[in-house]
């Protein structure tokens, strides 16, 4: 694995290179998409991106945790957490079942 982290700037540059918008327009587009996804998640809605995955909000109830240093039990307050569930298409691409252009290699045989 390369260990590289993709940043907003990287996404903006990719949109600039592939779509042909100006750098400013590319940055505004990426920001708009990320803002809309964030707003939906904050409202508790699920965001599903076909062939990529879903962002879901789950509620975790109150529970008892333990301080690993002292062993003392402490209550952990209820909270909402965001989780990402990758689509089967993304899982297959990650595991090498699909070639990078998105076509299944078994279709060509």
UniProtKB/TrEMBL annotation:
<dbReference type="GO" id="GO:0005829">
    <property type="term" value="C:cytosol"/>
</dbReference>
<comment type="subunit">
    <text>Heterodimer of an alpha and a beta chain.</text>
</comment>
<comment type="function">
    <text>This protein is one of the two subunits of integration host factor, a specific DNA-binding protein that functions in genetic recombination as well as in transcriptional and translational control.</text>
</comment>
<dbReference type="GO" id="GO:0006355">
    <property type="term" value="P:regulation of DNA-templated transcription"/>
</dbReference>
<keyword id="KW-0804">Transcription</keyword>
<dbReference type="InterPro" id="IPR010992">
    <property type="entry name" value="IHF-like_DNA-bd_dom_sf"/>
</dbReference>
<comment type="similarity">
    <text>Belongs to the bacterial histone-like protein family.</text>
</comment>
<keyword id="KW-0238">DNA-binding</keyword>
<dbReference type="GO" id="GO:0009893">
    <property type="term" value="P:positive regulation of metabolic process"/>
</dbReference>
<dbReference type="InterPro" id="IPR020816">
    <property type="entry name" value="Histone-like_DNA-bd_CS"/>
</dbReference>
<dbReference type="InterPro" id="IPR005684">
    <property type="entry name" value="IHF_alpha"/>
</dbReference>
<dbReference type="GO" id="GO:0006417">
    <property type="term" value="P:regulation of translation"/>
</dbReference>
<protein>
    <recommendedName>
        <fullName>Integration host factor subunit alpha</fullName>
    </recommendedName>
</protein>
<dbReference type="Pfam" id="PF00216">
    <property type="entry name" value="Bac_DNA_binding"/>
</dbReference>
<dbReference type="GO" id="GO:0003677">
    <property type="term" value="F:DNA binding"/>
</dbReference>
<keyword id="KW-0805">Transcription regulation</keyword>
<keyword id="KW-0233">DNA recombination</keyword>
<dbReference type="GO" id="GO:0006310">
    <property type="term" value="P:DNA recombination"/>
</dbReference>
<dbReference type="InterPro" id="IPR000119">
    <property type="entry name" value="Hist_DNA-bd"/>
</dbReference>
<keyword id="KW-0810">Translation regulation</keyword>
<dbReference type="GO" id="GO:0030527">
    <property type="term" value="F:structural constituent of chromatin"/>
</dbReference>
